[in-house]
Amino acid sequence: MARPRQFDEDSVLEAAGEIFWSRGYEATSTRDLTDRMGLTHASLYNAFGDKRGLYLKALKHYLDRNLHSRIARMEATYSPGLTIVGYFHEVVERSLADAEHRGCLLVNTALEARSEDPEIQRVVADETVEIEAFFLRSVAAAQASGEIPANQPPEDIAKLLLSVQFGLRVLVRVRPERELMNGILRPAMAMLNLPWPLPESSPDG
């Protein structure tokens, strides 16, 4: 009979995600991981298969804890238009608060993804589809309510917002400047007749 795991998987995946996020997949060794996670090599391989298997699980854990939970929280807190503003507000604040300027693990994975690893590429692509769908829901609902002008197809706006997010997350790694991000987001939000920054009177989730 297999022995039960002697560790908390959430804590281990959190630790693995932190080091992958800081160093990148290629630059992270299994020794780095076992030291940070407090596991032996045997435990790591028994639980996750290999470094790549661990990376995929750590990425999913990161996305569930950060991206997916943020989207759910924004959609439950704001009007459809302000959901977009609130989402980018949190991207900016989290980016500036990160002393290591790591950007976003999903975006970093996209930059590291190679054609020899189609599974990683597919995971990243699937996530971009989810983010685009979130923007599309928000834009379509805001256009229906009159919060956003209906002069552009919501599908096009969703794709534009997706590119804004990825561009911001790349730039912040080398230029973590509030005014740079504000200068990108002000015209993008103005195009949608949305305020930037987030109005202080709005609920801040």
Automatic annotation (TrEMBL):
Q: Which UniProt keywords apply?
A: DNA-binding, Transcription, Transcription regulation
Which ranges does the entry annotate as DNA-binding region?
A: 29-48
| Highest taxon, organism lineage | Bacteria
**What InterPro entries does UniProt report for this protein, alphabetically?**
DNA-bd_HTH_TetR-type_CS, Homeodomain-like_sf, HTH_TetR, Tet_transcr_reg_TetR-rel_C_sf, TetR_C
- Keyword presence, Ribosomal protein: no
* 4Fe-4S found in the keyword field: no
Xref: PROSITE patterns: HTH_TETR_1 (PS01081), HTH_TETR_2 (PS50977)
List each copy of the HTH tetR-type domain by range.
6-66
Gene3D superfamilies in the record: Homeodomain-like, Tetracycline Repressor, domain 2
Q: Which named protein is this? A: TetR/AcrR family transcriptional regulator
